[in-house]
Amino acid sequence: MGVEKEQLKTHNKISKTYNFFHQALVIAIIMFISNIIESFMPVPMPASVIGLVLLFIALCTGIVKLGQVETVGTTLTNNIGFLFVPAGVSVINSLGILSTSPILIILLIIISTLLLLLCTGFLSQLLITKSFIPKNSKQKNWRRINYD
Q1: pLDDT single digits (tens) 13-51
Q2: What are the TM regions of this chain, as residue ranges (predicted)?
Q3: Whole-prediction pTM
Q4: Can you give the pLDDT at residue 123?
Q5: For residue 129, what are the CA distances in angstroms to 118, 138, 141?
Q6: Distance CA 5, CA 129 (A)
């Protein structure tokens, strides 16, 4: 009886490891395809953004099932702070460049944040209402948001 339990535990470990590597391979293939697409795009766009869009499309169309990427995705999300360390180190290494024009950088941060908020608001309004302007004024579900 003890030998069978040990074999079952070993089989479960091997199965989990195989599933994890299979999921990592699916994500790696999507990232590889996104790198190829990035090299042919006339507009500069990060391969990671293209990969996210490709993964979203693959999940929505059923090409990739959620179970095929869920464990690796959860693991990456749980360790996201660790993944941002190289970006933080690179900012610290660039402090000399950043200190030459701090006003310009602060202005850039404020403008980009406001643009991001506006775009997010308009996009969410579009997705909620399916249009910016109602077809008729008697539409009950239309809520006009006054930003004044």
Answers
A1: 888 888 889 999 999 999 999 999 999 988 888 898 999
A2: 20-37, 43-64, 76-97, 103-128
A3: 0.56
A4: 87
A5: 16, 14, 8
A6: 56
Residue environment code for 105-134, b if the CB has 16+ CB neighbours within 10 A, otherwise e: eeeeeeeeeeeeeeeeeeeeeeeebeeeee
pLDDT band at residue 136 using 50, 70 and 90 as cut-offs: low
Cα dihedral 81, 83, 86, 91 sign: negative
Sign of CA dihedral 52, 54, 60, 63: negative
The band of 145, judged by pLDDT with boundaries at 50, 70 and 90, is low
Q: Which amino acid is at 13?
A: K
Task: List C-alpha distances in Å: 50 to 26, 39, 62.
Answer: 15, 11, 18
DSSP 135: S
Integer-rounded Cα Rg, in Å, for the chain is 23
